[in-house]
Amino acid sequence: MIPPLVFIDGDQGTTGLQIHERLRDRSDLKLFTLPAAERKDPKRRAEAINACDIAILCLPDDAAREAMDTIANPAVRVIDASSAHRTQPDWTYGFPEMAAGQAERIANARRVTNPGCYPTGAIGLLRPLLQAGLIPDSYPVSIHAVSGYSGRGRAGVEEHEGRGAVNAPSYQVYGLELAHKHTPEIQRHAGLAQRPIFVPAYGAFRQGIVLTVPLELRLLAPDVDGAALHECLARHYAEATHVHVLPLLESCALKHLDPQMLNGTNDMRLSVFPNTAHGHVLLSAVFDNLGKGASGAAVQNLNLMLTQQ
User: Where is the Semialdehyde dehydrogenase NAD-binding domain (predicted)?
Assistant: First the structure.
């Protein structure tokens, strides 16, 4: 049997490099990338994408759209790691654990859009709770997340690891205009009726994310508390391989969250921190922005799609 041909378009960025690293020793597929001299040749790129079985696009949004326009071969399947198609209804959202049957939909899809790093954590926390009716879709959601500097791509890596690294900031909050491009993706796939407030930041560590969502119990139904929220998440992800919910007693014993604890994996850990005295609950997600937040998720989606290749 001829192994399927997988073409990575844009294998020199942080996500593309990590995907290549994860796939290069696989014997069940044939990995293909363009040599340096051909990477910017539109004709050569079009030939490559139309000759493969599955293309993984690791490109800026506009370049990803342009790549899609060159596909003439109806047999070509695509995983797009950019944000160009994440809210498009004719693309399958590549978060296998977010809903029942989503893994099967990805396995059979022709077009899969890889989730953004921040949305993976936010949707992973919020969607099950909204679907269960524990959080109303009108809840005024606020999200804060801190990512490693690799989340900025090459620019972030160069700033912190290049010649001027001594002057790199230790921490910086950005997106102050509250218009981050991931916000519509979070709203759509979490099932929120209104736009959440999303405030991201970068820290002086290479990779990893801590994302938090605070909740006020007074805005929820009288029978909803930290235990109910935790039970819902634990039940939703009970059979998941890559998403784990920390037991409530263990989360209550924690004093801090380490954004780097799952680096190098495709796993995500969710936690619930209730404060009964004040009627507050904090939801958290910890994962690798280059793992479950990018390349790990792309490979997970690829593996699902290969089952139907």
Answer: 5-106
Long-range pairs, 96-105, Cβ under 8 A, ≥24: 96/300, 96/301, 96/304, 97/124, 97/237, 97/240, 97/242, 97/243, 98/123, 98/124, 98/127, 98/189, 99/127, 99/131, 103/304
Task: Determine which one of 58, 117, 232, 252 is catalytic.
Answer: 117
* Residue tagged 């790691």 (tokens): 81
Q: Is 68 helix (H, G, I), strand (E, B) or coil?
A: helix
Query: 293 with 117: CB under 8 angstroms?
Result: yes
Spatial distance between the Cα atoms of 309 and 137, rounded to a whole number of angstroms: 37
pLDDT higher than threshold 90 for residue 60:
yes
The DSSP call for residue 166 is: G
* Tokens matching residue 290: 């280059």
Q: Residue 157's CB: how many other CB atoms inside 10 A? A: 19
Out of 4-13, 30-39, 69-78, the most confident range is 69-78
252 tagged catalytic = no
Task: Confirm if 123 and 95 have CB atoms less than 8 A apart.
Answer: yes
Query: To 5 degrees, how large is the angle CA 206–CA 155–CA 12?
Result: 85
pLDDT grade for 162, boundaries at 50, 70 and 90: confident
What does the alpha-carbon distance between residue 115 and residue 111 come to, in Å, rounded to a whole number?
Answer: 13
> How much is the pTM?
0.96
What domains can you pick out in the chain, each with its CATH number?
5-115+294-306 (3.40.50.720), 117-290 (3.30.360.10)
